[in-house]
């Protein structure tokens, strides 16, 4: 039952954001930029485990991985404004983001930070 609740809440959030964005890209962006999914994940993790250490680790990992995720939001609009096909642009942006994740994890490991 708990999984069904989690899936439902998450799905409702995604659908709500896309519906709001149809009416106002600014309002959709505000909703999408608020770390609702991360906060929900922190709540679910704490409710299920009551393990503060795990919640802290997840929160720290999310912090470090937000930075490389920004690559998608820089590359995608730049490519689309250049008239590049949406599917190619989103695919390239996702690939670039994956590379940035790998780079961030590699750099952090170099400094002794393991996610």
Structural notes for this entry:
The protein is an all-alpha fold and 115 residues long. The protein has a domain at 52-115. 87% of the residues lie in helices and 0% in strands. It is built from 5 helices and no strands. The protein has helices at 2-23, 25-33, 36-49, 52-81, 86-110. Helix 1 runs antiparallel to helix 2 and helix 3 (36-49) runs antiparallel to helix 4. The longest helix is centred in the middle third of the chain and has 30 residues, at 52-81. The chain is flat.
Brief sketch in words of this structure:
The protein is 87% helix and 0% strand. The chain has 115 residues and is mainly alpha-helical.
Query: What is the tally of beta strands?
Result: 0
- Residues in β-strands, percent: under 5%
User: What is Rg?
Assistant: 17 Å
Q: Specify the overall morphology.
A: flat
From N to C, what is the helix and strand string? HHHHH
Weakly predicted, low-confidence segments: none
Major beta-sheet overview: none
- How many helical elements? 5
Q: Which structural class should the secondary elements be placed in?
A: mainly alpha
The span between the termini is: 30 Å
In round numbers, the mean pLDDT is: 91
